[in-house]
Amino acid sequence: MAKPKHYSSNTKLAYISVPSQIISSVSSSALQSLLLSPKKSSKNSNRFFSTSRTNPRFWFFLLFFLSFFGMLMMWLNLDTYLVPFSPYPCSQSHFTSSKITVTDQNSYLVSSIDQIDEEDDTVDDNKMFWEQPDGLGYRPCLDFTKEYKSSSVEVVKDRTKYLVVVVSGGMNQQRNQIVDAVVIARILGAALVVPILQVNVIWGDESEFSDIFDLEHFKKVLADDVRIVSSLPSTHLMSRPVEEKRTPLHVSPQWIRARYLKRMHREGVLLLRGLDSRLSKDLPSDLQKLRCKVAFHALRFSPPVLELGNKLAERMRSKGPYIALHLRMEKDVWVRTGCLPGLSPEYDEIVYNERKLRPELLTGRSNMTYHDRKLAGLCPLNALEVTRLLKALGAPRSAMIYWAGGQPFGGKEALLPLTKEFSHFYNKDDLALPGELEPFAKKASLLAALDYIVSEDSDVFMPSHGGNMGHAIQGHRAYAGHKKHITPNKRQMLPYFLNSSLPEPESKRIIRELHLESLGQPELRTSKQGRDVTKYPVPECMCTDSKTETI
């Protein structure tokens, strides 16, 4: 080290141990003034420093002052050393920040412990989220009675009565009507002509039965129950069909026989339109089993649809388990339900004005306000509410999510809460390779079938609103072994979502408790009148090895 010029080679140096905090807080020039003697500038100053160097009291007080000052600095910064090591060890901000009080330090330690506990809880939540409900040993069992089997011989042989049906609506609505058509044909002992799909006015879809479903498979599966023919025979082409346009809701088998059987014997052909919800949901056991046989076995999608649907499902599953969401956020859904999307006043105004121009679109309870509908659980969940529900139930942010449904009103903006929280967010357009969707362009029913396949195959399924697709998939997943299906408890959970003063951990706990029994566990159809067996297949279509086991 170079020596200062004003020191001779034999000059003895004195060293003082000073805490590093003092050194860091004192400028370099000040240190020089402490360690090195300045040049003589005047006699007074020279006399002062000359006297000070030989005076023991001067050094004693200097050492005492420096030691006291150092201890004071260390005491003031003592709390700093209690803070866990900074993740940025080269940063000096750890030592230059303002003093942390003991209360703040305790709060920090408590929050650190809470954060560790919360991380552990999050890991546990993620594991629990993918767990499947206990199916209680229920499995499909379509054991028809001897009476049903013996009468099947006569039904299949009959060549005098034919039922023609025209089904309408979307793919899932058409599916439900086809199920009812098969059961009605069985009740009347008639042959069923392959159902005619009415051209959808909204989407302009001209798909036929064989475009959506596997016709040959449909005929084969039902060969012992109802005879399926592709068209009327020549002997009945000139017949004047008995046409029924307005069948009452929820009619019984007795009503159907009394109403149509004699006329069918006379004319030979019965034409039915608009079968949606016309047949009672509470039918004899054999007919309930027939409904399940049609819905879960006979109505298989056509080979092209099934092939692409399975490919999309495989692409989702290639990266692990995935969630399927059926989002009902289209413009017509907001108009028909009497609800608002909540994106902005401008979007709400568009929905309100369209509903005002076409009040016939509103689906019941027109005297209720939007707020009342919302609290009654009659409105679809928007993207923010779906996100909060998934987070409360423990869905990991890294989860793969497939969303089914039409284009949401508001476009991508309507999905922002979901896409910000869950980055792996896909639909059929994202998964399909170039050209794969071209054969399905402008065919809403075929596109809905693709959504159905990917959703049914998911590890967890959740609809944002009730509807034909949600109900159909719920029943299908139950029949497949009660795969996890989340039914949002909208009526009970929304008040907690609207309560901004409720802490988030408490809100999550409450939401989770509200859904403990809404995760796809076996539920008896007979516990509530009017339930569809294709949504609740227990107990008519599923049974256990132990006849004594109950839900």
TrEMBL record:
Keyword Iron annotated: no
Metabolic or biological pathway: Glycan metabolism
Gene Ontology terms: biological process: fucose metabolic process
Signal sequence bounds: none
GO cellular component: cytoplasm; membrane
Membrane disposition: Single-pass type II membrane protein
Molecular-function annotations in GO: glycosyltransferase activity
UniProt keyword terms in alphabetical order: Carbohydrate metabolism, Fucose metabolism, Glycoprotein, Glycosyltransferase, Membrane, Signal-anchor, Transferase, Transmembrane, Transmembrane helix
Annotated TM spans: 13-37, 58-78
Localization in the cell: Membrane
Coiled-coil stretches noted in the UniProt entry, renumbered to this chain: none
Superkingdom, taxonomy of origin: Eukaryota
Family: Belongs to the glycosyltransferase GT106 family.
Name this polypeptide is given: O-fucosyltransferase family protein
Species in which this protein is naturally found: Papaver atlanticum
